[in-house]
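dumping the sequnces here before i forget
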Amino acid sequence: MILMSRIRSLAALAAFVVLGVLAALPANAEVRIDITRGQMKPLPIAIPDFAGGQPQDTRIGADIARVVSADLERSGLFKPIDPKAFIQTAASLQAGPRFPDWKAINAEALVSGKVESGADGRIRVEFRLWDVFNEAYMTGWTLSASPQDWRRLSHKVADAIYKRVTGEDGYFDTQIVYIAESGPKNDRKKRLSIMDQDGEHHRFLTDGSELVLTPRFSPSAREITYLSYFKGVPRVYIFNLDTGRRESLGNFPGMTFAPRFSPDGNKVIFSMAENGNTEIYEMNLLTRQKRQLTFHPAIDTAPSYSPDGQQITFESDRGGGQQIYVMAADGSNPQRISFGDGRYATPVWSPRGDLIAFTKQKGGQFFIGVMRTDGSGERLLAEGFLVEGPTWAPNGRVLSFFREAPSDERGRGQVVRLYTIDLTGVNERVLLTPIDGSDPAWSPLIP
Amino acid sequence: MKLRFLTIVAAAALLAACESAPSDTGAKGGAGQTTPAASSGIVKGSKEDFVANVGDRVFFDFDKSSLRADAKATLDKQAAWLKAYPNYSLTVEGHADERGTREYNLALGEKRANSVAEYLKAAGVAAARVKTVSYGKERPVALGSNEAAWSQNRRGVTVLN
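..and the predicted 3d for all of it:
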């Protein structure tokens, strides 16, 4: 439905039909993807192996090209060209691109790069992005790093390409924390787990001896706040990724849950349930002062700050069923924003500030959707027997969520998987995990 | 230890569910109601006695935490038993079915546990004996993704400590 226009060089020859309107594109425009328009056709890009001096450099160079390709392909915005089609060799590319060779295989963008081991044991990685039709250099950099950090360097290359071509920040040098699940439905083991956004570098952070749920990153990406049933008592904890230690947010009279960091990292907002009533609170991590933000006998939960920290979106059944509300960060002026059919839950404010993602229940199905922060412009992106828990990539263009399949009376058929989908709703992908996974939370770009 | 106990309870509930007619889903007062008293050498006043002869759980309607008439009947029996055996403290677990979002179901489970706890206290069980915990949708006893299973999973369970 929504079409993305790709502006290309030599486009005087080209005209696209966009939403049924014939639109002539400007001549000599550079390679560009407008990701606000939805996808028409991914940009063909050639990503040859990065050249290397030493054999180990050559190996890393090939690995980098593979990871960059995979990142860009999964975004749905790029179509890496099969290397078997390449005419110019990676070695000769070091002397400069022979653009006709790349035009001949319809590459619109070209990546060149090299890897060199230094005497200090570090690798120097250089990359260049080229506009094939304009025969022009677009961007590039040189970074040095420890050889075992080659994956992060690859994601940084992909981020740089994404940003130069779309004008938006990338989201590839990021991690996802989630809950790994195993065992029968009535005795499910759940483990706090973390991995790179492409599923690599996977590790379990807890051993499954206690039930853990709903992890969320701090803005520094070094801490995770989550719910644990440690010693049988459901409470909010903060896990430090550097020390591997966790601490309780505090001792409260009731169950604490649904935690989320403030954008400055100085506060955690959460729910506390006490005597049959769930309210939203904030905890100042510097002063350890707790403040109650909602005052209503209904269930008020799932709070999420706006990126400027001035507002909080949350869900409440104070109007009957679950609906989404927005209030000021001090709890004043709560306003309902969702008025569609069905129930609306788990609101999460986009890092760009423009949208709120949610889980919707209607007609026996679950949906992942987005709406503007005033509740208008609702769009449903994914659907299933159970889809839940959207989380935003840091650029606000992609969401992750989980999907669970129904099971029979013996528990057979249950599968719980993480997914990603872009805002156009057309590029849904499974995010592979070693075992079942739920409750994903996307990190900011790793500092 | 608690987990093993729950497994026994779950097995009892499933057994009871199997014995009932399909149209009878979820409307039962307790897992032990069909078990004749003193059928298998259960010691009076034991945890097994409570589960088998009183019924350790009550069931809720979808998205509700109010007590149905059958639930109140079970809780009256629980309260009488608990007053007769005052040495037990108890934890009321609140549970939800899988047809809700995770955090909402945690809150709903807490409301259900609180409804049960408040009823028992009002019926004369000392408040100091009663604790609550919510498991949301995390600990179903019936595994199917259908109303028969969901009606078994929307429950409040009185666990003796």
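Chain A touches chain B through 47 residues (CB under 8 Å).
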